Amino acid sequence: MTTEGLPVARVIVSGVRRDAVAAWLTARWPLLASTLLLALLVDLLLGGAVTTALDPAVRERMAALPHSPSDVSAALVLDRTGKITTVSTALLLAGSWAAWRERSWSALVMAGTTLFSMLAVLAVVKFGLARGLAVNGDPSLFVPGGQAFPSGHGAQAALGAALVAVLVARARGRRLRRSTALLAVLVPSAVMTSVSLYLGFHWMSDLAAGALTGVLAARAGLAVEARLARRRADRVRIGIPPLGAVTTPFDAREQAEERSVVLAGSPHVR
Question: What is the phi-psi region of residue 90: left when phi exceeds 0, alpha when psi lies from -120 to 50, beta otherwise?
Answer without folding.
Answer: alpha
